């Protein structure tokens, strides 16, 4: 059994309802090694920090070749499972996103975030469209022989302010979770969602492990565990804190 297959199985097993795996998102080999040294069980990139670290804006502005070379270097730098944020898969058609997923596997990744917003456009892909895209990734994963983790992300809650998160939005999210599960998703990612009641209902309504981002308005880790969350990630937060610290330290050195 190859190391990548073993790591993929290990990564899947980390997603436990009520005992969430914490993924403190990184952007390059150096940050990956720092997080690994802190005791992380797995390594996850975030599209925003990776793009920012290379001087690009988020939204698939960083060239895919560069993003994948970065993953190869990260995989080589740490002895942990590595999952990549693939955004919208650098394409719209199922064949295009499947090809992107396959290239990520070839680079050593054992999981992907795959979102349903229209990158470079507005709104979300229709459920029927997104289901075909997820199914294509699942076919690519199955063909590879590597049981990679497909973290199907919905941007429903990021498209609305937290005080606009309603039971109706949750119903839409649950509908997408069910459809994405049938298409082959391994997990369901609801970034932006922070309301305790809605998180608990989402975790109860889907068999998929639920991923929440630890933003300022989101409950702490212990409470998320009680609500049934299986995965907590940090998105752009670590990079933004690091950049703010670096700027402050530089300002003191320059002005001092």
UniProtKB/TrEMBL annotation:
Molecular function GO terms recorded: lyase activity
Which superkingdom?
A: Bacteria
Name the UniProt key words of this record, in alphabetical order. Lyase, Pyruvate
Q: Does the keyword Protein biosynthesis apply?
A: no
Q: Which CDD domains match?
A: ICL_PEPM
The family database entries (InterPro entries) matched by this protein are listed as: ICL/PEPM, Pyrv/PenolPyrv_kinase-like_dom, Pyrv_kinase-like_dom_sf
Q: What is this protein called?
A: Isocitrate lyase/phosphoenolpyruvate mutase family protein
């Amino acid at each position: 059994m190859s190391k990548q297959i073993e790591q993929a199985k290990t990564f899947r097993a980390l997603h436990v309802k009520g005992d969430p795996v914490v993924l403190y998102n990184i952007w390059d080999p150096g940050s990956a090694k720092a997080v690994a040294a802190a005791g992380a069980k797995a390594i996850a990139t975030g599209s925003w920090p990776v793009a920012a670290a290379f001087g690009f804006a988020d939204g698939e502005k960083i060239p895919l070749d560069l993003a994948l070379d970065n993953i190869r270097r990260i995989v080589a730098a740490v002895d942990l499972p590595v999952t990549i944020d693939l955004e919208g898969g650098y394409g719209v058609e199922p064949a295009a996103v499947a090809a992107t997923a396959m290239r990520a596997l070839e680079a050593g990744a054992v999981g992907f975030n795959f979102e349903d917003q229209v990158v470079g456009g507005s709104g979300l892909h229709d459920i029927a469209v997104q289901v075909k895209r997820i199914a294509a990734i699942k076919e690519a994963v199955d063909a590879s022989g590597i049981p990679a983790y497909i973290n199907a992300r919905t941007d429903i809650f990021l498209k609305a302010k937290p005080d606009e998160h309603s039971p109706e939005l949750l119903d839409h999210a649950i509908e997408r979770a069910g459809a994405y599960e049938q298409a082959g998703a391994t997990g369901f990612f609801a970034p932006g969602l922070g309301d305790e009641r809605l998180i608990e209902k989402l975790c109860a309504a889907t068999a998929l492990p639920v991923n929440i981002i630890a933003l300022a308005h989101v409950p702490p880790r212990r409470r998320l565990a009680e609500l049934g969350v299986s995965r907590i990630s940090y998105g752009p937060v670590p990079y933004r804190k690091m950049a703010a610290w670096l700027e402050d330290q530089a300002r003191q050195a320059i002005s001092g």
